[in-house]
Amino acid sequence: MASDSRPDSNSSATDDLREVGTDGDEKRIRSDEMDATYVATRVEDAESEAVRKIPEQVVRVTPLRNLLASFEDGIRRMRLDGRESASLGLERRVIEYEGTTYRIEEA
Fold first, then answer.
1. Tens-digit pLDDT profile for residues 46-59
2. In-domain check, residue 1
3. How far apart are CA 56 and CA 82, in angstroms?
């Protein structure tokens, strides 16, 4: 089940995050430290089974936390220039978070 609203969790983006701009349904955000780019896309039909994540897991992985906390109405894709995270790895991942499915990948 996909939603057009921001995830309804207790997690929020880190203080160093700022919006760079939007282009249609894509929003670009940036943190102070940048050495990787990640993209989160809301998906209706995932190509693989989604792994369910809870807020306590998301808040521990800074790029994932920032991506998911930054979604808002009308945004389908988030692009984050931020810190690299070994927890995300390089492969594409499909997650379910608070009833919405996302494909997370390194750009």
1. 888 899 999 999 99
2. no
3. 20
